[in-house]
Amino acid sequence: MKSLFFIAALGILAFSCSVSDENMLISQNSEEIKTKLTSEFWQPKDVFAIAALKKAKEVQYGRDLIIHTAYYLGPRGRIAQQTNGLNCQNCHLDAGTKPFGNNYGSVASTYPKVRARSGKMESIEKRINDCFERSLNGKPLRENSKEMQAMVAYMQFLGENVPKGEKAAGSGLKALPFLNRAADPTKGKAVYDLRCASCHQSNGRGIIDGIGQSYVYPPLWGPHSFNDAAGLSRISNMAKYVKYNMPLGVNHDDPELSDEDAWDVAAYIESKPRPHKPTPKDWPDISKKPIDHPFGPYADQFSEMQHKYGPFTAMKKAKK
Question: Fold for domain 51-158?
Fold first, then answer.
């Protein structure tokens, strides 16, 4: 009897000697395609293979801070209490190494740089503190602190294999086509209830660990979520993020949500209340403000509601 052992949990594919040559060829071709797809995107160096002890210690501490931010700096943090309890890894998946999962592959190669949001030259330290103040709805770190320097060292190490001035393949968020209509929070609620609520809960408050210190699944709205000045408060960023990374474990090359579902569930999430952060100095040149920035003023005549939910095609043409 012919027998076939399917893909095991560790990704090892085993065949019995009686499998046909045709099936073997198909399997080999599939593995070649998978390898090719993987090799096209940036892959980080191994933080546990650093030879220099001092560097290894600092880089690995930085990685730990990214993964377990709340344990160190959350509301019950062992070092300080200055964030909302989220972890950097909640937005920057796999400790900032996942392709199209908001990874850190291009940080070292592109910073310092001028950012349109501030209109100023920004360092890596400034960019990290932006996340602390916006995504973590907290207070900035001292730039000379051990924790800040460790996170910078980790990001610089991850990007050592990316030439200066270039962007790592697979960095940021993967492009997602605009809808030909406005994203619909009502339709998005149905998607959320079916695909998201089991982890993030029907009230959007997430699930915290047994000691109330760190979120296993982060809140998507409410007092402990990212504030309205964070990057994920823009619907396009949220839609791209959920399309190619959610439900948790999904990869960009095999998404489960349709484009419409991704936009609509993003609209539902963005329709919910969250902490407000005044940002009077953001976008000093409002002509450079993203078309889906949810708050005015704008350099065009489209409404704030359309800027928040779309449709965006006409706005994009007008901006050009």
Answer: Cytochrome Bc1 Complex; Chain D, domain 2 (1.10.760)
